[in-house]
Amino acid sequence: MLPVRGRDGRADGFVRRILGTRTAWTPQGDGEFFCPGCGGDRNYQRLAGRRRLTLLGVPVLARGAAEPVVECASCLHRFGLDTLDPPTTRRLSVLLREAVQEAAVSVLAAGGTGSRAAQETAAATLRAAGCEADAAERLAMTADAADPRGPLTALTPHLATAGRETVLLDAALIALADGPYTPAEHTALTEIGESLLLPAEAVERVLTTARTPS
Question: What is the pTM of this model?
Answer without folding.
Answer: 0.73
